[in-house]
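Hello, quick one for you while I still have it in my head. A protein chain has come my way and I'm curious about its shape. I'm sending you its amino acid sequence along with the backbone structure tokens. I'd be grateful if you could look everything over and explain what you see. Here's the protein in full, and shout if anything looks odd to you:
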Amino acid sequence: MYCANHPSVETYLRCGKCGKPICAKCRVSTPVGFRCFSCANIQVLPTYAISSEYYAKAGAAGFVVAAVAGVLMGLLPAFEFWVGLAMAVGVSEAIGWAANEKRGPGLQWLGMGAIAFGFIISRLTLQTFFLMFPMGGINVPHGVFAGSGIPVIGGSPFFVSQFTIMYLALALFLVYRRLG
């Protein structure tokens, strides 16, 4: 006998409910045996079913929190780690709240995009309001933007140290784990 969905594939397997012949590509494992796609009644879990309305709300909430935290990070570069940590927690919680505590890869990408946006805002703020509140610290550029802290990106107009990249990676990881 041949598969009902793939007429060129020979099979010895039938759906446990309707008896339709199915091949290895068409079978769905259930607690009572293999079934075809229509009988298995595959559904998305409600936690991962996200409408475009939730994406819009989550995006707005996440990007607003990231922008506020980015401005704060740019004004207070000595506290970059703590503001980056607060940005990660704030963005992930704002997106979770706006999306009704739903999860999924789309929200992960949205959160990571908001974090990247926040870090870009922080670099623009740091360049615009250079040391408005000078407090020292390892993340404060020495000289008037004498170049980046990393030789590879030394030609960048923004000050980016190895710590900035590390804090960005930490924030991205935290948002990815919280929204996944």
Notes: Residues 143-148 have pLDDT under 50 and may be disordered. DSSP finds five helices and four strands in the chain.
